[in-house]
Hints:
The chain is of the alpha/beta class. It is about 45% helix and about 10% strand.
Amino acid sequence: DIKTIVLPEGDEERTVEAASIIVNEGLAAPVLIGDPEKIAAVAAKKNVDISKVSIENPKDSPLREIYVKSLYELRKAKGLTEEEAEKLISDPMYFGIMMVKSEDADGLVSGAVHTTGDMLRPALQIIKTKKGEVVFEEDEFIKHDADLEKMATLACLKTRAGGQGKKECKKPVI
């Protein structure tokens, strides 16, 4: 079951290269968010084939009006106007998060140019969390040869004391 993954930093060189690799290796169905002409220019510059990669332009996507209305309904109690919702949906991060919220995508990967706050703000505003649920964000690089135990230990260390603690973690059960 191939998952659809949104890449909101669609015209960033590493993101375009990654999308090409992901689709060609059958790992996922990436969706680059941004201006198709800019994305194509980056792909040409980096000499990568993105012919099998989906591209959504938040400025003229057929999904735009649906997402504007949904975002407005989600946030109007917090004071968001329809005009503000229109503006926010033009932002690739908000558009991508709405794709996930609307189940048009399974997940979103960001961080090449956006800060953690830039990513978490729309995610928490739109997708929110369940009561008592903990949001886990990780900004460490995990080497491609890391095993599950190393990744679980890293997750444990980062969640202790808000990511500040280095208390010993018990060996994870995997």
